């Protein structure tokens, strides 16, 4: 009984804090998202006159919106530690991120750790489950040009055709540079049993920390975006020459997200902040596109190899609390990712001032008309 009484004030404060955070999130969305839509509408003439400038401005606002989502976790103590190669070196090139998927918090984690990578977030296209279309952020993603993919065998071929068409219509025309893809096709907890049964039946690697990836979306992306040289081989960057000026997709960034004790953060936790401060660890490995096979069977094998490596990385992390050093290095070096409190204050202030401005403009026209 004494223990319950001791915990009561803490639980009470946790509930109050969660309610306050939820209220702020609601208000934040109510001012930021409509303001974004209003700016996009009012800038439509610019889209006709100078499409590239329009999508640049839209991308900056999109980055700010994702920065607001990142700030919800940041102020709850959910931070990111980065390992492996420094992806800032390829931030101006075209790249695809292949990410393992454990929970909805994976998306929030990426929103946070990519904020300090130049214009990556502004020029990024997400491939995410169609359920996200019906969230508060769905309208923003639709305007920005993200792709919502419906899972399930019966939808697979149709969705791949839609993805191909979407890339043709939106990727180049909107000056996109990076694509975020979760090749597993679902959360680890939902796909692990099916993946292991498939692996056992087909004599494939048996994985527990990740699942076997699907190659369909990756193949569509590579075929659509990799520039072909005259000899037919893919053009792309070289690991020793990061300033390559070759056009088209140049890099594959193998991204592995790890949570302490294998306990992922979900979107509810990110918003309400009821979990204790947690450091999420993100490991990067960069592959030049010229080293990635484009044929279906070879690409599938290559993807399996990457996820076997993810399995080993995560096993090492869960045992030691750190990722292993890269090849050729004796020690693994981590980098703490930080968000600027001043920058967060400025984008939040802009959002609330914009919301106030648009409210008064709409109210004025409403009274004029009615």
Summarize the entry for a quick read:
With 370 residues, the protein is an alpha/beta fold.
Description:
With 370 residues, the chain is α/β, with parallel strands linked by helices. The chain has a domain at 78-231 and 247-338: Glycerol-3-phosphate (1)-acyltransferase, CATH 3.40.1130. The chain contains eleven helices and eight strands. It has helices spanning 2-42, 44-49, 51-74, 105-113, 138-144, 156-170, 188-201, 216-225, 267-272, 296-320, 341-369; strands at 78-84, 95-99, 124-129, 147-149, 178-181, 251-258, 278-288, 334-337. Strands 4-3-5-2-6-7-1-8 form an eight-stranded mixed beta sheet, sandwiched between helices. Strand 3, helix 5 (138-144) and strand 4 (147-149) form a beta-alpha-beta unit. The protein is globular, with a radius of gyration of 22 Å. The relative contact order is 0.16.
SSE inventory with pairings:
Layout: H1 2-42, H2 44-49, H3 51-74, E1 78-84, E2 95-99, H4 105-113, E3 124-129, H5 138-144, E4 147-149, H6 156-170, E5 178-181, H7 188-201, H8 216-225, E6 251-258, H9 267-272, E7 278-288, H10 296-320, E8 334-337, H11 341-369
Parallel strand pairs: 1-7, 2-5, 2-6, 3-4, 3-5
Antiparallel strand pairs: 1-8, 6-7
């Amino acid at each position: 009984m004494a223990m319950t009484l001791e915990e009561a004030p803490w639980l009470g404060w946790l509930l109050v804090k969660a309610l306050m955070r939820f209220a702020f999130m609601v208000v934040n969305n109510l001012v930021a998202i409509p303001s974004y839509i209003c700016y996009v509408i009012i800038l439509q003439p610019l889209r006709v006159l100078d499409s590239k400038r329009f999508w640049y401005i839209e991308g900056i606002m999109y980055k700010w919106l994702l920065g607001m989502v990142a700030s919800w976790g940041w102020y709850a103590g959910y931070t990111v530690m980065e390992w492996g190669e420094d992806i800032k070196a390829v931030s101006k090139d075209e790249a695809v991120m292949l990410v393992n998927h454990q929970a909805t918090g994976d998306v929030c984690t990426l929103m946070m750790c990519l904020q300090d990578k130049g214009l990556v977030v502004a020029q990024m296209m997400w491939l995410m489950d169609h359920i996200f279309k019906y969230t508060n952020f769905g309208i923003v993603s639709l305007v920005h040009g993200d792709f919502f993919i419906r899972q399930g065998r019966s939808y697979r071929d149709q969705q791949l055709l839609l993805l191909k068409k979407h890339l043709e219509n939106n990727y180049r025309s909107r000056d996109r540079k990076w694509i975020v893809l979760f090749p597993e096709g679902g959360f680890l907890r939902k796909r692990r049993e099916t993946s292991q049964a498939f692996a056992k039946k087909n004599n494939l690697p048996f994985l527990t920390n990740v699942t076997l990836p699907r190659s369909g979306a990756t193949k569509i992306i590579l075929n659509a975006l990799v520039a072909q040289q005259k000899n037919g081989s893919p053009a792309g960057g070289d690991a020793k020459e990061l300033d390559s000026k070759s056009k088209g997709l140049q890099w594959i960034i193998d991204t592995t997200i790890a949570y302490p004790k294998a306990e992922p953060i979900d979107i509810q936790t990110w918003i309400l902040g009821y979990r204790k401060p947690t450091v999420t660890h993100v490991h990067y490995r960069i592959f030049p596109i010229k080293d990635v096979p484009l044929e279906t069977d070879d690409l599938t094998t290559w993807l399996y190899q990457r996820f076997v490596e993810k399995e080993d990385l995560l096993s090492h992390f869960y045992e030691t609390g750190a990722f292993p050093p890269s090849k050729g290095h004796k020690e693994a070096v981590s980098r703490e990712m930080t968000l600027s409190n001043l920058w967060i204050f400025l984008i939040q202030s802009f959002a609330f001032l914009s919301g106030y401005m648009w409210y008064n403009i709409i109210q004025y026209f409403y009274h004029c008309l009615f």
